[in-house]
Amino acid sequence: MSERRSRKDAARNREAVLAAADALFARCESPADVTMADVASAAGVGKGTLFRAFDDRAGLLRALYEARLEPIREAVEAGPPPLGPATPPTDRVPAVLDALLCFKLDNRRLVLALEEGGSPSPYRAEHYERWHSMLRAVLEQIPALTDSDFTAHALLAATRADLVEHLAGEKRVPPERMRAQLANYVARVLASGPPQDPARLSAE
């Protein structure tokens, strides 16, 4: 009975912490302003409870990110078109990137905090590697593209949190315009043929 109650308390504390962190990041001016002490206070738990559940600030950010991204990930992995596996690759690639952009627009502070912290390189982060691997696999199904690995990196760069924050926050670009710009960019990339060899171009 005591062990069951302990598990329930831990689950309840985890949900309280995620909700508190979610609210704090939504209201903050800068992601760096939100500390673990702030989250613990808002959730009504001790800092020790927070660290036991998430290890550190990066662990908390990852947990919150994964919780909010879960519906999109499920749709991409097993859902219907346009995100699911049955979608033709030339339709699925722009749909996945649009979904990622919309997610980052809706969660600007959280995603910026995650991409700015944690791993020394954002390209080594688990969430980035997962999206890159998925996108690369879909791009490999498009015969006209010969370098799916680099193309996946280039397309994901268009949805980076710092770029989204710059355009949406500093430039005041409306979300629908950003989505249209991304769609046009992706369409041009997917319609392009095999790249020319730079060495050959310089020789000519």
TrEMBL record:
User: Which InterPro entries does the protein's record reference?
Assistant: Homeodomain-like_sf, HTH-type_TetR-like_transc_reg, HTH_TetR, Tet_transcr_reg_TetR-rel_C_sf
Q: Which residues bind DNA?
A: 35-54
HTH tetR-type domain residues: 11-72
The record ties this protein, via SUPFAM superfamilies, to: Homeodomain-like (SSF46689), Tetracyclin repressor-like, C-terminal domain (SSF48498)
Q: Does the keyword DNA-binding apply?
A: yes
Could you confirm whether the keyword Cell wall biogenesis/degradation appears in this record?
Answer: no
Provide this UniProt record's keywords sorted from A to Z: DNA-binding
- Please name one Pfam family that this protein belongs to: TetR_N
Name of the protein in its database record: TetR/AcrR family transcriptional regulator
